Amino acid sequence: MSSERLKFFVGVNTGYVTDGKLEQRFVDFYRRRSSPALHCAIVGNVVIPGGHGSNSRTPTISCASDWAKLAGEIARKGSLPGIQLSTTWEGYSGSRSFRSPAARETIGRARELVRELGPARIAAALRALDKASDIAVEAGFRHLQVHAAHGYLFSLLVDERLNEHASRVLKRLSEWAERHTAVGIETSIRISLRTGDSDFDAHGRNRFLAQMATLPFDFVDVSSGFYDIDKRLIYPGRPDVLKTRRTETIEFARNFPERRFILSGRALMQPDHDLPPNLHLGFCRDLVANPDYLTDQSRGCANSGKCHYFSRGGDHITCSQWANQA
Ligand SMILES: Cc1cc2nc3c(=O)[nH]c(=O)nc-3n(C[C@H](O)[C@H](O)[C@H](O)COP(=O)(O)O)c2cc1C
Ligand code: SF4
User: For residue 217, how far is its CA from the centre of ligand 2 (angstroms)?
Assistant: First the structure.
């Protein structure tokens, strides 16, 4: 494998949160998976001040010392501490099923939601993102990610197919990224290649992807799917879905050789000789299953689906492979 390819632990919502506070096992989970082999651990789905979580066990960034402890432990183990900043909206409740029965209404509801929020509340969400990132930097995080994937609020706001004022949001996000780059903080934006609604995805997708790739973020972290349309695209398991995710990510990266991208979807399951040099590697389930996966690929994710705790009615992550570990 090419040694310059950076490796990221991409966002994972662990549920290791009680009353909005990080539990000790939250810190232990990230400490155990951070190492000099991992460029950056991006702590998943952290809510911005005044924002709304994707479930009741999603943490909100704050000045509490737990956040500095978390960033400090990741750094001490040899990885760059990263954080994914996100919000949903008042009354949001994620679908528990993999293919939401209400999927066909999701796009229409998203457009309505953005219209109802209006420019003032959208501007407030962007100010909350500023505040979140300042708190995160103060706590020691050195990679900041905007979660603009999976149908959460920022993914609706950046897409002109859903938000007629998307260009204003893109301008604000560009300024946000440049402000952090200027002081040496790495930045990324996570986006979805597709929503999973085939009618919607059939129009304007290339233009949307081009807009995302030309924003001044250091990395575009490439995911796919909207949570309330088709979760199979978010966590691909079937070989055909994995293959499509990989092929589309490679094509996207090839189209924008000056931008760096992060590939996920069992990133090491296939040889990497077909990957363009601007594509870096993101890991989630293999590293969940085996914290030492980057140095020992003999054990990884067994695709059992047990970690989808929210869809399964559980309240924190678990893995069928943990019982097998020494
Ligand atoms: C249990 C679980 C929780 C996840 N939580 C998040 C999250 O909080 N934010 C996010 O962007 N992606 C989340 N994902 C998606 C992963 O970041 C990743 O993109 C996906 O699992 C595909 O990569 P993999 O094949 O290496 O697992 C989650 C995935 C799993 C399995
Ligand atoms: S629970 Fe199953 S699908 Fe999830 S990481 Fe573990 S082995 Fe993979």
Answer: 31
Q: Domain 7-324 has what CATH class?
A: alpha beta
Cβ–ligand 1 distance for 42 under 6 Å, the answer no
- pLDDT by 10s per residue, the chain, length 326: 445 899 999 999 999 999 888 999 999 999 999 999 999 999 999 999 999 998 888 999 999 999 999 999 999 999 999 999 999 999 888 767 666 667 789 999 999 999 999 999 999 999 999 999 999 999 999 999 999 999 999 999 999 999 999 999 999 999 999 999 999 999 999 999 999 999 999 999 999 999 999 999 999 999 999 999 999 999 999 999 999 999 999 999 999 999 999 999 998 887 778 899 999 999 999 999 999 999 999 999 999 999 988 878 888 999 999 986 54
Whole-angstrom distance, CA of residue 221 vs CA of residue 261: 6
Is 125:131 a contact under the CB 8 Å cutoff? no
Q: Is the CB of 303 under 6 A from ligand 2?
A: yes
Whether residue 190 has its Cβ less than 6 Å from ligand 1: yes
pTM of the model: 0.96
Contact (CB, 8 A) for 18 and 59: no
* Helix boundaries (H) for the chain: 24-33, 65-76, 103-139, 153-157, 166-181, 198-201, 205-213, 239-255, 285-289
CA dist 119 and 63 (Å) reads: 28
User: How is the chain split into domains, by residue range?
Assistant: 7-324
